[in-house]
Structures are given as structure tokens and as C-alpha cells.
Specification:
- The complex is a heterodimer of chains A (342) and B (133).
- With 342 residues, chain A is an alpha+beta fold.
- Chain A has two domains: 75 residues, Alpha-Beta Plaits, CATH 3.30.70.100; 247 residues, no CATH class.
- In chain A, strand 2 and strand 3 form a beta hairpin.
- The radius of gyration of chain A is 23 Å and the shape is elongated.
- Chain B is elongated, with a radius of gyration of 19 Å.
- In chain B, strand 9 and strand 10 form a beta hairpin.
- Helix content of chain B is 20%, strand content 39%.
- Chain B has one helix and ten strands.
- Chain B folds into two domains: 30 residues; 92 residues, Sandwich (Immunoglobulin-like).
- The chains are: A alpha+beta (342), B alpha+beta (133).
């Protein structure tokens, strides 16, 4: 190849939010045989590539380079991505429909499907399923959706989601055993519940707004490390990627969800390590199908247009859930009159 | 695919779903299937007893009771594993976990006429309101 064939191209990098992405994209792109050098910038979310691509149109090159990045799920497109308002035309009605179905589910009274006085493990499983379809969906489901969609947007599709669910189920098993053994639960008083619910609501609101892709700011889930640190420890960044979702999943044990609290209350009353652990484990297992469906929906959307619509729909739903939770938690401490009543 | 057509179609579906929900809510008229017309307020000597069942929400949701009278709330649960088992009454600073099945008694001091007492599940999605007159 002759030096004369080398040209400089500037591409926009979608989904580049963290400093680690800059380094990863640079090293990944440099592996391409025709790329001489690659220089990414987080500020402009673009990458400057020097290489010999002959007379191929930039669109073509962008597409080819994208496949190189797909492992780290950064993609290169020629034009800086504008806010695609048209996507809202699809996202808004889908979000409204989902919210309507959610309200309908509550009205039908999924909760009343559970009957029987003794809590067998099968029963705990059933309560879990009910919980995941009911009002708990607003808080736990909302959180799951916001986190999975955020990770999916950053490009990590399966691993964080899987770790979240593993962390959740493991923590229910372990902590269920702990409260069963201790015979007492760490129950929050109403102020504690309020603070926690409101914090979760605000967190979801931030993630939801971020998912809409209307405003540009760094991702709240991605702690921004100084470049020299992340350069030295690319492996560590992967570790944070792994631990954060697992920890968040585990922490859902403490989320103020009525069903979880009722199950914990029962687990405490068993006074047994094994019974407490298994009750909470089967409960968490029951919530898994619906929650997993939520977090892995992102896997089904592959094309760029569909992804844009998906993230906007997810963002809108997460914002709705966040507002719903915030209003409810204000009502629960008696600041405002109850707005929703099912 | 014409995106505008898709969008319009989706909006029509959304509107249809919302109307279904609105109809269901209207048809309910603030009452749940479990609600009965029977008076759930009974007088025992000088005090009054209000019975409320808790499962998938509270029923009845709106109760009218006498003011200036000592009141006993009887909250009944039967295989209640949802949020309504985690009851709070902010005004009384009361918070408890109701047993999955059983009856829980809450003593309410005499209330002023025109005042209300609201009980909610700890997440605030279900509630009941007692109006004192």
C-alpha cells in the first residue's frame, strides 16, 4: 500500500459514553488491516481514522468498521446522530399501550389469584409471579428496565442483565436464610421506605430521561475514571461492568415492594435458615420470567431504527414508573392525598 | 414501511387500550368487586368498629364514621401477600405487617368532625379513607 492512498476520515461513534470506550474503540479499530491509526474523542463522540480504503464511499467504510466494533458494540456512522423525533411517533403510543395494559392488569386483580393460607414453596413461587405482574412491577420492573436498557445502549447486551438476575436470586436465597435464622428482618420504618423509594424514583427518572436520547450527558451508570487510570486497567473496567449489575440485583432485596416485604415477613416467622432461604429463593424465581422478559427485550431489537424506538419507549415507561413511584411514596407518608388506588 | 402510517396505527391501538381502561375504571365507579353495600361500621357500646378487608387493596375504600368516638379498626386479611399487608396510617404514625390471614386490631382515638384518616400500603398504591362526621 502506498502512503498516497491513506486518507483521514472522521466518523461519529454511537453509544460512546465512557473513557474506557474511547480506548476500546481505538484499539479495536486499529486492528483493522486498512486502518493506520485511530483517535477517538469522548467530547465530540467521534473517531478520526487514517487509513487506505481506496475509493470506497464513507458510508461503506463506516459499515465495515462497525462490524469490527460490534464486540464492544460501538458503531461508526458517517453523520452525527441527531435526535430522531420521528421515533417518538412510535415510542409514545407503545409506551401508552404498555401503561394501559399495566393498569388493566391491576384492575383485573392479578393479586387475587393467590389463595391458600400456608406458604409452600410452590405458593412462594406463585406469589413471585403475581408480584412481577402487579404494582411491584412499577418499582422493581422499572428499575430492571432502566438498568438493562441503559446497559444495552452502552452495548453490553447479555452479561450485565444476566448478572443482575443472578445477583438478585442469590441475594434472596442468602438474605432469606439470614432473616429466617435471625428471626427478625431489617424492616425500614416509613421514613426509611420513603427515602429509599424516592431515591429509586429519582434514579429511574435520570436513567429514563437519559434513555430518551434527547439530552446529551455522560451516563450516570458509568463512573468516569481518569483516562490514565482506565488506560492502565482496562480489565478493571470490565470488572466494574460485572459487579455493578450483580450488586444492584442483590440490593433489590431491600426495595420497598409490598410482596417482597410480605414474603420476608413470612420468612422471618419460619425461624429457620433453610425455610427462610428457600421461601425467598422461590419467590425470586417466580419474579424471574416477567423481569427477564423485560431485561432481554433489548436482545430482540437489532436494527438501528428499532433500537432507537426501543430505547425511547423504555425511557418513557421508566419515566412513567418513576413518577408513579414518587407520587405513591409521597402519599404513603401522608404528604399528599393518595392519587392512585387499586 | 411507511413510518407515519405505523405511527398512526399505533396511536389508534393506544387510544383503544386507554378507552378500555377508562371504561373499566368508570364501570367500577370507585368500588371493587369485593365491595358490598353492607355497613361495615358497627357500634359496640360507646365505641365503633370499622371492618376493612385487605387483599389486593383495601375494601371498602371509603368509609364514613362518627366523629368524637373511640374507634376500633379491624383489618382482615386472607392469604394476603401483596402490598396491602404492609399497612401504614401516617396520621397515627402506625405501621405494621399484617399476618397473611387473620385479623388485626388498630385503636383509633376519637377524631374531630370533618377530619379524615387515610391508611395505605407502605408503597402508597392502595389506600382507604375514613371520613369522620
Amino acid at each position: 500500500m502506498t502512503a498516497a492512498g491513506i486518507e483521514t476520515y472522521t466518523f461519529h461513534v454511537n453509544g460512546m459514553h465512557c473513557r474506557a470506550c474511547v480506548l476500546l474503540s481505538e484499539s479495536e479499530l486499529a486492528e483493522h488491516p486498512r486502518v493506520v491509526s485511530a483517535k477517538s474523542s469522548l467530547r465530540t463522540r467521534s473517531v478520526e481514522i487514517r487509513g487506505d480504503f481506496g475509493d470506497r464511499p464513507p458510508e461503506d467504510i463506516a459499515e465495515e468498521l462497525s462490524t469490527f466494533l460490534s464486540e464492544h458494540s460501538l458503531s461508526t456512522t458517517v453523520h452525527k446522530r441527531q435526535v430522531d423525533w420521528d421515533e417518538f411517533g412510535v415510542a409514545v403510543p407503545i409506551a401508552i399501550s404498555c401503561a394501559a395494559v399495566f393498569v388493566l392488569l391491576q384492575e383485573i386483580g392479578v393479586v387475587n389469584l393467590v389463595s391458600g393460607d400456608t406458604v409452600t414453596y410452590g405458593m412462594a413461587f406463585l406469589v413471585g409471579i403475581t408480584a412481577s405482574l402487579s404494582t411491584c412491577m412499577a418499582i422493581v420492573g422499572g428499575l430492571v428496565l432502566s438498568i438493562s436498557a441503559t446497559f444495552a445502549r452502552l452495548g453490553d447486551r447479555t452479561k450485565p442483565q444476566t448478572l443482575f438476575h443472578i445477583g438478585r436470586i442469590a441475594s434472596f436465597l442468602v438474605l432469606g436464610g439470614v432473616i429466617g435464622l435471625l428471626g427478625s428482618a431489617f424492616r425500614l420504618n416509613s421514613t426509611g421506605t420513603f427515602v429509599l423509594s424516592l431515591t429509586v424514583a429519582l434514579f429511574m427518572l435520570a436513567l429514563g430521561v437519559n434513555l430518551l436520547g434527547v439530552f446529551r450527558w455522560s451516563n450516570p451508570l458509568q463512573p468516569s475514571m481518569p483516562r490514565f487510570v482506565s488506560k492502565r486497567a482496562l480489565g478493571t473496567t470490565n470488572l466494574t461492568h460485572a459487579f455493578t449489575p450483580a450488586l444492584v440485583g442483590g440490593a433489590t432485596f431491600f426495595l420497598p415492594c409490598g410482596f417482597t416485604q410480605a414474603m420476608q415477613f413470612y420468612a422471618v416467622s419460619t425461624g429457620s435458615l433453610v425455610a427462610g432461604a428457600l421461601t425467598m429463593f422461590f419467590f425470586a424465581l417466580g419474579t424471574l420470567p416477567a423481569l427477564a422478559l423485560l431485561s432481554f427485550t433489548s436482545l430482540a431489537v437489532r436494527t438501528k431504527t428499532k433500537q432507537g424506538v426501543f430505547f425511547k419507549t423504555a425511557g418513557l415507561l421508566v419515566i412513567l414508573f418513576a413518577v408513579f413511584n414518587a407520587v405513591n411514596s409521597l402519599a404513603a407518608i401522608g404528604v399528599i392525598e393518595p392519587v392512585f388506588n387499586w | 414501511m411507511n413510518s407515519r402510517a405505523t405511527s398512526i396505527l399505533l396511536f389508534v391501538i393506544a387510544a383503544a387500550l386507554v378507552s378500555v381502561v377508562a371504561l373499566v375504571l368508570l364501570a367500577r365507579g370507585g368500588a371493587k368487586p369485593g365491595d358490598t353495600a353492607r355497613a361495615n361500621v358497627s357500634n359496640v357500646g360507646e365505641s365503633q368498629v370499622i371492618e376493612i378487608s385487605a387483599k389486593g387493596g383495601f375494601s371498602p375504600r371509603d368509609v364514613t364514621a362518627k366523629a368524637g368516638t373511640a374507634t376500633t379498626l379491624k383489618i382482615k386479611t386472607s392469604s394476603t401477600f401483596d402490598c396491602s399487608s404492609s399497612l401504614t396510617i401516617p396520621k397515627l404514625g402506625y405501621q405494621t405487617n399484617l399476618p397473611p390471614s387473620g385479623e388485626t386490631v388498630v385503636d383509633v382515638p376519637p377524631q374531630k368532625p370533618g377530619s379524615t384518616l387515610t391508611g395505605l400500603c407502605s408503597m402508597g398504591m392502595y389506600s382507604f379513607t375514613i371520613q369522620f362526621e
